[in-house]
Amino acid sequence: MFTINEIENIYKSHADPERAKKMAAYMRNKFDFYGLPAGLRRDLSKAYIKEGKKAKSIDRTLLTGLFSNKYREINYLGLDLLKAQSHLLTIGDFENLVDLAQIRPWWDTIDNIDSIIGGLGHGNKEFEEKILDLAQSDNFWLRRIAIGHQRRYKDKTDTDLLAKIIKINLEIPVKDKDEKFFIDKAIGWALREYSKTNPAWVGSFLDEESKALAPLTIREASKYMK
Fold first, then answer.
1. What are the beta bridge partners of residue 71?
2. Can you state the angle between helices 38-54 and 72-84, rounded to 10 degrees?
3. What pLDDT is attached to residue 2?
4. Coiled coil where (predicted)?
5. What's the pTM value of the predicted model, to 2 decimals?
6. Contact 103, 67 (CB under 8 A)
């Protein structure tokens, strides 16, 4: 398997400092960037992702290193590798994925790892218990994962579970404007995605919870229902 140092050298050789400044500014200067466009980054990583797909097991030390790296593009490689190895993941990886999610979290990583976690246990009672625990976490990024974990389920969405998780989060006091924004947005996004499959259910839910839902949530959820 490849090394992080190897990736760092390749990414660095294609760095674009001016683009890096713009990318960092877009992310509120929370992370350092090499300034690689997404297409170039994927091209540079293609051989390593291909290698990862052939692996017999997941290298947790490598993933932790990728997620912990100061450069965001290397964090993205960690996500890409996780997706490529998703066939190796089981319900037993739940806690490990939650740990990875908490390394340098922001919407760009959280909104990818939520679906990876969501793929661990559709219809599994043990998984449901774990995701409900996550929905009540003190860490709002973990609650965002719980809210969005079914976004790719489409007609297999567990609406009872979706409604339960949303209602739990409507009752949890938020600590600041960032937390409110990211939770309200996550609820709206989860509902919006499901509205592509079942607009009647989403419309009914919006009507029933209209007083509790934030205007941002309602706008997001209604995007494809006009």
1. 32
2. 40
3. 78
4. none
5. 0.95
6. yes
Residues 6+ apart with CB under 8 A from 35: 15, 16, 17, 18, 19, 20, 21, 22, 23
* 3-class secondary-structure state, position 181: helix
Closest among 149, 210, 221 to 188, alpha carbons compared: 221
Check residue 15 and give its pLDDT.
Answer: 98
- Tokens matching residue 16: 């674009």
**Which residue matches tokens 């990728």?**
66
Give the CA angle between residues 28, 46, 69 to the nearest 5°. 40
Residue 187 corresponds to which tokens in the numbers above?
Answer: 């609820």
Q: Which structure tokens are listed for 94? A: 């739940």
Task: Return mean pLDDT, the chain.
Answer: 96
pLDDT band at 122 (very low <50, low <70, confident <90, very high): confident
Question: Closest by alpha carbon to 167, among 108, 220, 127, 217?
Answer: 217
Q: What is the pLDDT of residue 138?
A: 96
Non-local (6+) Cβ contacts of 82 within 8 A are 63, 89, 97, 100, 113, 116
3-state secondary structure of 71: strand
CA 124 – CA 106 distance, rounded (Å): 28
Q: How many CB atoms lie within 10 A of CB 166?
A: 22
Write the DSSP symbol of residue 173.
Answer: P
Coil, strand or helix: which one is 174? coil
* 130, 170 contact by CB (below 8 A): no
Say how far apart CA 202 and CA 113 lie, in whole Å: 24
